[in-house]
Every structure is written in C-alpha cells, then in structure tokens.
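> example.struct
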C-alpha cells in the first residue's frame, strides 16, 4: 500500500533528517488575542474562525505544563523524545516584546524542546519581534514562523474579514527573509467564491516570494463562527472530499520538492464541526490524497516549473 511520504515531502521527514530521530510539535496556548478581534483591525475575527476548534485541552495550564503534557502524549503515541513548541492559538506575536519573550522562554526551558514555531498574522510582525525569534535560531534551535495568509486575493480576504491584504504578506515575507527565518504559509482551499484556479494562483504567488513550508487546510464550518450562519442559510456549500483531494494533488504537483508540507488537511472536533463531515478525521483525507497521487503516477514537484498566468 502506498504511503504519503512516497509522494510528498513532509515536515516530519524534514525533521527526521535534521535531528536523526522523530520530532513532533506540541501546541501551546499562551493566552494571546488577535487584532481582528480586539478592535485594532476589526471585531468578530475571521468568518471561519472559532479558536476552540484547535484549542489545546491543556490550555488552562501554564505554558511549561502544556508543553510537558504535550510531550507525554507524544511519547505515549510515537515514543518521540524531542518536540517543537508550537504557539498556535490566535496571534502569537501580538503582545509587548517582554511578554512574548517570557512566553517563548517558558516553553523552551522544558527539557526535550528543540525548537519554536510561532503562528501569527502577516500584519503583526515588527522588526523587534522578528529579531527576537531569530535569536532563538542563533542559539541552535529549530525556528519557524507560520503565517496565516489563506488566500492571495484581497477580495477574498475582505470577504472573510481577515483584516489584512496580500500586500502585508509580501512585506512580512521580506522581513522574515532578511532574518533568515523559515516560513510556513497557511492556505485554505474552498474559501467562499474561490475554486481550483484561485488555489493554483495563490500557490504560485506564495512560491514566487519564497517559502520553506506550506499548510493546506480545507474550509470547514464550525459552530460559533460567522460562516456558520451562511451555511445554515444555504449560502455556502463546502467542498466535497473528491474535489478537495483533486485540488490538493494539483498543488502538490506544482510545489518544488524543497518545500515541506506541514499539513495537507485540517480537522475539527466533532462537537464543533458542522460541515463537511469528512473533516472530523485526517487519515481518510490523507489516504485519499495518497491514492490520487498514486493513480496519477505523479508526486511533489513534477509540474513545479509550470507557469500560472496573471489573474
């Protein structure tokens, strides 16, 4: 039976080569908020967002306790002894520098933590914050910044109330590249009024600026999000699984092999998920993507040099 790593360069493979053993990410909730919620950029957040859908179960604990519990879970599941602390919830560069430094240091002080991954928005990166993150790389740690772009189309970003445009993403990438910090860009497939061509154009634009990693998510509708109202009113029909799998296979084929895929699907807890139902678990989706690439007889990068016309 074919396995995904035969066709796709995964982040797990990359970490295995870098450290010589398995390394996993553990999620951290440091209690930060978002400028799209507190009024700085907007209120209510992105229309698809309900942070409870990726809120760690240990979030009520301190940062170090969250990391230690995450490590215990990883060791039980995979026996991996090393982890990267992933600051995921909301915007993890949106706080005074002293608070950011204190939060990162608490996670990095836990034995077995070998890296830091910081999830944030393109409009929340100052030079001082980027310099702070770069300082951890200079200490020999594996360091990543994960930028939530979702789409390169400003009309789409406005439609889902992102509170920033593609221009801010370009500026953020340029700043991070000056400090030699690798970037993993988050993209959502199936956003309102977007289809396959939008996904391909967004990928081409992201790759043209330079990126070290990608996370691909399907749009899913969760309770408590503004998008849930559109779904219940029949104004939104999420992608079916075959359509999503086909688009992801197209994206994989057009992505150079040096770019690592940190994720090819996304899930939500059953209690929160409204649609599509196939977003409850990841393995059905990953197996379908693997099967599609095997059926095509292709793999990552086979069409990486293919140009995409201007939109």
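> example.seq
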């Amino acid at each position: 039976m074919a396995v995904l790593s035969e066709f796709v360069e995964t982040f797990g493979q990359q970490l295995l080569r870098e450290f010589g053993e398995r390394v996993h990410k553990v999620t951290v909730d440091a209690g930060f908020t978002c400028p799209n919620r507190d009024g700085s950029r907007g209120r209510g957040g992105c229309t698809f967002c309900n942070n409870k859908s990726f809120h760690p179960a240990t979030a009520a604990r301190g940062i170090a306790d969250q990391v230690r519990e995450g490590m215990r879970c990883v060791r039980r599941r995979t026996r991996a002894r090393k982890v990267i602390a992933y600051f995921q919830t909301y915007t993890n560069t949106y706080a005074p520098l002293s608070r950011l430094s204190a939060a990162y240091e608490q996670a990095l002080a836990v034995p077995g933590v070998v890296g830091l991954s910081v999830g944030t928005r393109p409009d929340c990166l100052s030079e001082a914050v980027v310099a702070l993150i770069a300082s951890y790389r200079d200490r020999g740690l594996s360091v990543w910044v994960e930028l939530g772009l979702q789409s390169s189309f400003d009309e789409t970003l406005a439609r889902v109330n992102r509170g920033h445009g593609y221009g801010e993403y370009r500026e953020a990438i340029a700043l991070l590249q000056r400090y030699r910090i690798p970037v993993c860009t988050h993209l959502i497939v199936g956003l309102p009024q977007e289809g396959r061509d939008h996904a391909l154009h967004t990928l081409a634009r992201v790759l043209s600026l330079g990126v070290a990693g990608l996370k691909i998510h399907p749009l899913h509708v969760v309770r408590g999000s503004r998008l849930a109202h559109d779904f219940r009113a029949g104004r939104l029909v999420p992608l079916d699984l075959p359509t999503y799998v086909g688009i992801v296979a197209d994206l994989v084929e057009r992505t150079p092999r040096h770019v690592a895929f940190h994720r090819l699907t996304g899930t939500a807890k059953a209690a929160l998920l409204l649609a599509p139902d196939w977003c409850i678990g990841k393995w059905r989706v990953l197996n379908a993507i693997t099967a599609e690439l095997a059926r095509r007889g292709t793999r990552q990068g086979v069409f990486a040099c293919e140009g995409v016309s201007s939109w």
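> remarks
The first strand starts at residue 23 and ends at 28.
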